[in-house]
Amino acid sequence: MIETKVAVDPAHWLDQYGDYLYRYALMRVRDAAIAEDILQETLLAAFSSFQNHAGRSSERTWLVGIMKHKVIDYFRRVGRMTQFQLTIDEEESESFENSGPWRGHWREDQAPVSWLVDAATVLESREFWEAFDRCLSQLPQQIAIAFTLREIDGLSANEICEILQITPNNLFVILHRGRAKLRQLLETEWFQKHTPSARTDQKSSNQRTAETTAQTPLSYRAAAA
Known about the structure:
By secondary structure, the chain is mostly helical. It is 65% helix and 0% strand. The chain folds into 2 domains: 10-81, Rna Polymerase Sigma Factor, Chain: A (Orthogonal Bundle), CATH 1.10.1740.10; 86-98 and 116-200, Winged helix-like DNA-binding domain superfamily/Winged helix DNA-binding domain (Arc Repressor Mutant, subunit A), CATH 1.10.10. It has 12 helices and no strands. Helix 1 packs across helix 2, helix 1 packs parallel to helix 3 (59-81) and helix 7 (141-152) crosses helix 9. The radius of gyration is 23 Å and the shape is globular. Mean pLDDT is 77; it is low at 198-225.
């Protein structure tokens, strides 16, 4: 069987794939200027080697592969400049029981709340992903990078530790902190506004505006119970 080589045309890369590649980079590096730099580096690298492209994949797939390596190179540089060796701080430790038979487990008033939504519907919602992107942007850089490499790009723990020059224990701490913080942000940005109970509460609140203005607002802890 003879393989058909896909023609490569550098002249239209920027117009045809520029927006997609830019969004790919921006989703990972969280900085518009850096995403533009990585896009430029990707196109330059592709232009210098396109004659060696085997043609067994589409142009976009090939360009994304090059960009993925450029993003990882950027993360390596950040890893050398940024202190990634994190420890659990006081604020985080207060979320868990410190003594007794339930030591290490969530405190009752800090435990995650069940999300009463249809997962398939949420994952298809553009509004949800916009909220997710806003929440991910609020994470510290170290945590956002490790979370992106693990949960978005699917790299193994060993690969991430090698890229960021951290120990497995510190990667565990970083990912744990990131997931907990991201969940907290998503509850505020999205799930409290879109769960059935939230919509019911909002409707009831609108019907009792005059009454509720004279009452003390429910705390976050009470609303999440």
